[in-house]
Specification:
Length: 215
């Protein structure tokens, strides 16, 4: 029997994560947020607590990440691990995961997400609603596929990268680490690390610093 889970975050993405957990029969006991002003509020009828509350219950409660920002999510995962708090993955009951696929710790797979044969999805990833990770794809840690995004067969999405709503990466094409691909873009050539690219076909529009902030 799984342990109760608290969702880190109290915004829209956290709501969807909590809903997916509830649909799988997991007991969700509340939300965690670092904003003291939110403590005592309720989201989906459940209470919002601070991190101190979660840390005190580390032996009895796991945490699921409800944070959309890739780098913030990674920092919070590290924070929770250092506090001895278990990390829960989320697989919506309407998601499809091939038996030969590999899905990392703490990854979130939303409704109608598809992970096909021999795909490798790293830890801390978000595969959002109706996103597709095709056969033999590799997705790096703490990446994010937005709703309706597609990684075609043999392609790759680097660690901490984001694929916008409806964006498509064609077969055997690699997107570098820390790169942001805009909504509805079609990526038909390799993209380097730490850039913003969009359009049809997608073109590099600007460079990002390694922290993900625009130079």
């Amino acid at each position: 029997m799984s342990r109760p889970v608290a969702v880190y975050g109290a915004g829209g993405h956290a709501k969807v994560v909590a809903d997916a957990l509830l649909l799988t029969g997991v007991e969700v006991i509340g939300f965690i947020d670092d904003d003291p002003a939110l403590e005592g509020d309720r989201v989906l009828t459940l209470p919002v607590h601070g991190f101190a509350w979660l840390r005190e219950r580390a032996r009895d409660v796991d945490v699921a990440m409800g944070i959309g920002d890739n780098r913030v999510r990674a920092l919070l995962v590290r924070r929770c691990r250092e506090a001895g708090i278990g990390l829960a993955g989320v697989v919506h009951p309407a998601a499809v995961v091939a038996a030969s696929a590999s899905v990392g710790e703490g990854t979130v797979l939303m409704a109608r997400a598809v992970i096909n044969a021999d795909a490798v999805v790293g830890p801390g990833v978000i595969v959002n609603t109706s996103a597709v990770v095709e056969h033999d794809v590799v997705v790096g840690e703490f990446a994010h596929l937005s709703p309706g995004a597609v990684l075609a067969g043999g392609s790759a999405l680097g660690a901490f990268s984001s694929l916008g709503v409806g964006a498509v990466v064609l077969d055997d094409i690699a997107v570098g680490a820390g790169t942001i691909v805009g909504a509805n873009a079609v990526v038909n050539r390799h993209l380097p690390d730490d850039v913003v690219a969009y359009g049809v076909p997608a073109r590099v529009r600007r460079q990002l610093t390694p922290t993900g902030a625009t130079e």
